[in-house]
Prior knowledge:
single chain; mainly alpha; Growth Hormone, Chain: A; two-stranded antiparallel sheet; 19 helices; 72% helix
Amino acid sequence: MNDNTVAARLDRLPVTRIHLMAVLVVGLGMFFDLYEVFLAGTVSTALKDDFHVSDDQLKPLLASAFVGAFLGAVVMSRIADRLGRRRAFYLTLAIYSLFSVLAAFSPNVEMLIVCRFLAGLGIGGELPLCDAYLSDLLPARARGRLIGWAYTVGFCGVPLAGFLALGIVPHSYAGVAGWRWMFLIGGLGAAVCWILRRQLPESPRWLEAVGRHEEADRIVRAFEAAAHSNAGTQPVPEQRPLDTATAKAPLRTLVTSPWRTRTAMLVVFQILQVFGYYGFGTLAPLVLASKGYDIVHSLTFSALSFVGYPIGSLLSIPILERIERKHLVMLSAFGMLAFGLGFGYAHSTAVIVALGIGYTLTSNLFSNAYHVYQGELFPTRLRATGAGTAYSLSRLASAAMPYVLLPLLVHHGANAVFAFIACAMTGVILDIGFFGPRTTGRSVDEVSDTMGADTPGVVAAAGPSAPTAIGDRSQSGS
Length: 478
């Protein structure tokens, strides 16, 4: 094993100001991405009044951004592995920003559905790309904690969407309906983030994986210089990395040995988890309306519940490196199951708010753990593609979600909705428990090089120092 490869040098680094800048800038992009994801649910009751949206029209309106996100996750993740993380970053935010602004000026519900679909192309690529980029960049011992901070910044956008909806949606400003201002704020904020992301370095791991060794070395030296200025440590002596294979990794690699078991595990997980995570955030105002609360009260309760998203994200930071991530995913999924069933049966105002906050708090322990987790499962040349392809199916499942959960809500009530969600989260627990590998505290290269060695039911395809199936041989201890 060559201790002077880019991967080894990155994992030996202390946390530097460049790491922290990347975490903050990526987190701000997540902020507006998550703001947008939860936007349709928060303004849906207002659109019923403004555009006289029927229940049949509400389903494609809620689904449109998720259908776009399905395509966006596949395409943008592939671009990230083929052309680089930075170029994909530019595309995701530019597309989202443009079409979110255009959505604010939609003259009818049909135009709004089209704009939401096109904005979804950018939304879908954002989170898996952030997971891959930060997993590439951050040292193994701090990876979970710092990605948790990025998501904490991002999830502040969710209660912002809730409280802005409460204050803005029921009113008009300068002759413009409040819900239109919601889309405009998100689009313009994403444009500012696009400018900030021009300061981010390209992933050195990706540069090395595609044979651009000199560029990778130059970026790592900048990190080492920052570490030296902060702590007085000496940079690693110059040594050209081994000329690792740079053959392209086609998409079909994900369904060949040894990666197909890990891909299948992640696909099942992503299809099921959306019903728990986005099911609550998207339908909470409608669930409350079904319990007899008017638009102001339902938005107030939703906004208060959404406070749990950043709090849960913040609480995840000290435990992401202390609890094995697959176990944290399973425990938090069980918490969502329990709080969801309670929310469905609750009728007291105080109990509804308390259970709503408990649900969103627990769901962000879950979300942060799995976003860190999915960025660790594949080698550098497949990292964005592997995470993004599986994540794209979660967007497709999210698009189907209104067609499943809304009829349950209308015909059988909130209890049936949360019973369905409980079944989905049970499936998540079993899937991760039986097929998920351990990753906490390990280099991402070690996790891929020991593929199958610690995954129940999977026969190891290679020893700890054997090359992977796609030529990504670098690894480092942690």
